[in-house]
Specification:
The chain is an all-beta fold. 1% of the residues lie in helices and 41% in strands. It has a single domain, classed as Neuraminidase (6 Propeller).
């Protein structure tokens, strides 16, 4: 069933709230489901949350087409087009078969930087590889109407795992002919000899961010090209499950967020050849509450720009560059699943200056965060027990 997004407070039974908050104010309280209005004082930027589209099954990722249409991935493998708040009843054809067990699914949709010329769409998804195993895959196709044609599989991560979690699957382009893809550690247990954990073993892709040319080939200047026993696609390693990835072309900075276990979610600046330490160093603990390690730092391993204890379950990452919220220009926005919140992190270069928590408990689990062509901030919400929703933050009138 197609449902039109509400355009007005009086006409919507969906989410609509007016929310104002400040850098000094940690988080809003209360709940804004079902048409409630939530007001917060000490405003540094007032805004409202407006419904865009609903009845989307577990939305994981969004990408705007040049004409303003929105592509949305559903976990189970469908790619939907949203036009003026209307979700197409038929999915875009040509999407490959997706493994959607556990945390696997159709994780990411991204447009080639020259999409207006070549119509290339990139997808990252989980794929069965036989023997009860699955891995993270990168593919691309050319969008013609509501079909992907000339579909190619560009990269298959070597993860060798039957676990159902931690696929990563986020894509970022640098605008210079390269793309980055995150690959999670596939749920490998952080126990025993931590130095031998798969995220510390560069002969596989578990717990890595890889760098490829936009045709899937390996750039000659990748940091480990030619090094014996190391996969040449690897850009960085020692990650757990990076589910936020964005390249800031203005500064040439690659940012990522990754899930910690019980505590220890991280925001990182991703540099070539660097080791980000999982699980040898971490600010988190096992889900049982037991210790993984007493070390939070070690020589030769990178420290996060910031981290979260307790975890907010980071998912989706945006560096804001629009005009709709000039006070937020240059800030990083981090979606939270377990935390059901949006973290706004202000940075000076690559140093954290301050952090503000928005929407805590007000809208649900935030899967993705994107900037629209209108300069508004769009959120993909994955609601347990109900349909997913796309909403956007607009300045208050």
């Amino acid at each position: 069933m197609i449902r039109r997004a509400a355009r007005d407070v009086a006409n919507t039974s969906s989410l609509l709230l007016l929310l104002a908050s400040s850098v000094a104010c940690s988080a809003s309280s209360g709940n804004a489901r079902g048409g409630d209005t939530l007001a917060v004082t000490e405003a540094s930027q007032s805004y409202r949350v407006v419904p865009v589209a609903d009845d989307i099954r577990s939305p994981l990722s969004m990408a705007f087409l040049p004409n303003g249409d929105l592509l949305v991935t559903e976990k189970e493998g469908a790619l939907r087009r949203v036009v003026n708040g209307v979700v197409s009843p038929a999915s875009i054809s040509g999407v490959p078969r997706v493994y959607s067990g556990g945390q696997g699914g159709l994780h990411e949709v991204a447009l080639h930087p020259e999409f207006a010329v070549n119509n290339l769409v990139y997808l990252a998804h989980a794929k069965e590889t036989g023997g009860g195993r699955a891995t993270t895959v990168l593919m691309r196709g050319r969008l013609e109407g509501d079909a992907l044609v000339d579909v190619q599989e560009l990269f298959v991560a070597q993860t060798n795992s039957s676990a159902g979690q931690h696929f990563g699957g986020r894509i970022a382009f640098d605008g210079a002919g390269h793309l980055f893809l995150s690959v999670g550690d596939r749920g490998a247990s952080p126990s025993g000899d931590l130095e031998r954990h798969p995220s510390q073993d560069r002969s596989n892709h578990q717990g890595t961010i890889v760098r490829l040319r936009d045709d899937g080939t390996v750039p000659a200047d990748n940091p480990f090209v030619g090094e014996a026993g190391v996969l040449p696609e690897i850009w960085s390693y020692g990650h757990r499950n990076p589910q936020g990835l964005v390249y800031d072309a203005e500064s040439g900075t690659l940012w990522s967020t990754e899930h910690g276990p019980r505590g220890g979610d991280e925001l990182n600046v991703v540099l070539p050849g660097r080791n980000y330490g999982w699980p040898v160093i971490t600010f988190g603990r096992n889900y049982s509450g037991t210790s993984i390690t007493s070390d939070t730092a070690r020589a030769g391993m990178e420290q996060p720009v910031t981290y979260w204890v307790p975890s907010i379950a980071t998912s989706g990452l945006l560096r804001y560059s629009g005009d709709a919220f000039p006070a937020w220009r240059g800030d990083l926005f981090v979606g939270g699943l377990a935390g059901e919140q949006l973290a706004r992190v202000t940075v000076n270069g690559t140093t954290k200056v301050s952090e503000e928590t928005l929407l805590r408990g007000a809208v649900g689990r935030i899967r993705d965060v994107r900037q629209g062509p209108d300069g508004y901030i769009y959120l993909a919400l994955d609601r347990d027990g109900g349909p997913g929703t796309i909403v956007r933050l607009e300045p208050s009138p």
